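2 proteins. here.
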Amino acid sequence: MNKVILLGRLTRDPEVRYTQTSNTLVASFSLAVNRRFVRQGEERQADFINIVAWSKLGEFCSKYFKKGQQVAIVGRLQTRTWDDDQGTKHYVTEVIAEEAYFADSKRDTTSENTTAFENTFGNTAPGSMGSDFEVSSSSDDLPF
């Protein structure tokens, strides 16, 4: 199983580009994720992890995520290689985002971003869109 769950802060605003062949939107950004443990006498260290979000999720990230904002990303780890013009082989490891969530507290986010999100997507969390399940408040419909 290849599943990654990260909680961190954006080190820069997402960068948007489009693929040459199908003109698909791709958003890239870096997440600073604090390490769990701190050695005595040292400062907390962070890992800087590259994130790639495609299509609608990439559009969402580019529109609502900003540098310094705390976000949660769920996705998969991917490695790829390529040769540059001088024939040097390059390796990169990145997380391909499958879900993205706001992780700042409500008081830390601007009402402008929240209102814009709700106007676009309604009052639902970004990861819950497209769910086939419905919560019923009545116990009469339950099969047990």
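next one coming up
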Amino acid sequence: MNLWRRMPFLLLLPALLAAQTAAPSEVEITAEPSHHLFLENEYLRVFKVEVGPHSQTLMHRHRHDYVFVTLGATEVENDVFGKPPVTLKLQDGETRFSPGNFAHIAKNLSDAPFRNVTIEFLKDEEAKKAPPPKWDEERGLQVFDGGTQHIMFVQDGVRVSEIELQPGATLPKHHHAGPHLLVAVSDLELRSDVEGQGPMPGHFKSGDAKWLPGGYTHTLTNVGKQPAKLVTLEFQ
């Protein structure tokens, strides 16, 4: 008789345990108020992210692998559901890759807004199944007069580089076989000298992103009065 009286509780127990381990209410990244969709195509989605001082995002899910480019030095707490919180101290322009398929809350621990550009790779699953593309370089630092180009990493077939140019400095002639994304870390005043087309000006605010087609060779010059810092993501 006692067992029968306890039966409703025993039947309810698995549901109670499941509720304790279930994720809290989460939203898609496109519905998270701090993430603002800026650009989308078949390769990627670009979000401009801004979290106020000592504020936080909603719990939101990243369904794709992504890269984020930090804008301004900051300190954030990354609360991934089911894992201990991790505190990150990030420098201006710091660029990191993160595998997708998780939900988290980002807490801004600093007195200034936490800003970044988040770039989702929409073909990440295809990239994992396909043979990796062959790049001439997957890591390396090129130093030239007044600047540097640092190839930081390749993930999901995408090559990510950081470029710094002093005023008047020129990134030497190079070829873009495939399309690429330019992310402005600083405000940029650039001139692109494309073979067969002539000079083209480019003006960008910090946090801007521009999708550029492939199939051209050019040099890139900082025509502004301040150092220029940008990140590129090259696709094949």
